[in-house]
Write a structure and sequence with these properties.
There is one protein chain. By secondary structure, this protein is of the alpha+beta class. Helix content is 27%, strand content 25%. Strands 1-7-6-2-3-4-5 form a seven-stranded mixed β-sheet. A hairpin with a 4-residue loop joins strand 4 (114-126) and strand 5 (131-142). The longest helix has 17 residues, at 213-229.
Length: 244
């Protein structure tokens, strides 16, 4: 039955609607819950639902959750920032509703210099209200281990970090029985300059790297960031403290 919801984001909305059917949820309340796209003087590119129905034209749920976490973690709005570059990778792990391990890698450049940050945190997920609440976090300042900031950005450009589409919009990427119907990690990306803002996301990209250049680029981006900042090791040590 679930296979008919092969749209990568539809299952989240479907689950929420099924649970919410036990009580009265009006449109006004849903609109209050959902993150609003800020009115900023930039070219903003955020994927939206295209299925007919109540959620038509709503921004994708992973963008909505990234904005909730952005606010809770005290980060500036990438959509409205005047920095010359903001690049973020939101790492979302599902499974249990409580104490989900999440992460954020951020590279930012203002008029003076580059800055890097890794934030590791736990999230409680409420599917009825479509909310993610940060319950605990720690952060690390990042500096390149192998090269330098300019070289990293050059490599990211070569991997097309500024133009990658959301996986759902790649023709033939998902087959009928595929999508986000799994507990695999979802990687959501924010790319922003003074002129534009883009959001895109990928799930289980590693099984597509030999078939789609976009999946290969995502793999290359994450490998580069791990080589320079060791985010995977730091995450493992934080979320599994007895393994140190």
């Amino acid at each position: 039955m679930l296979k008919q919801f092969n749209n990568p984001q539809t299952w989240l909305v479907v689950i929420w609607l099924i649970i919410s059917s036990c009580s009265v949820i009006d449109k006004e309340k849903v609109i209050k819950i959902y993150s609003k796209v800020p009115d900023c003087p930039k070219n903003i590119d955020i994927p939206r639902y295209k299925q007919s129905g109540f959620f038509y034209d709503f921004p994708f749920s992973f963008w909505h959750w990234s904005k909730q976490k952005e606010k809770q973690l005290g980060l500036q709005s990438a959509e409205c920032s005047n920095d010359s570059l903001i690049f973020r990778v939101w790492i979302s792990n599902f499974g249990s509703k409580k104490h989900q391990p999440h992460g954020l890698i951020e590279i930012r450049r203002d008029s003076l210099s580059f800055y890097g940050k890794l934030i590791l945190f736990y999230v409680d997920f409420n599917e009825r209200e479509m909310t993610e609440v940060v319950t605990e976090s720690t952060s690390f300042d990042l500096t390149p281990l192998k090269s330098n900031w300019s070289s990293i950005v050059d490599s990211l450009k070569a991997y097309k970090f500024d133009e990658l589409p959301t996986d759902e919009f790649i023709p033939g990427y998902y087959k009928q029985d595929e999508g986000y119907l799994n507990n695999s990690t979802t990687y959501s990306f924010e790319y922003a300059t003074r002129e534009c803002y883009r959001f895109y996301q990928y799930n289980q990209f590693y099984v597509k790297v030999d078939e789609f250049w976009q999946a290969r680029s995502v793999s290359d981006i994450l490998h580069l960031l791990n080589k320079e900042f060791e985010w995977d090791r730091r995450g493992w040590e934080y979320f599994n403290p007895t393994s140190k």
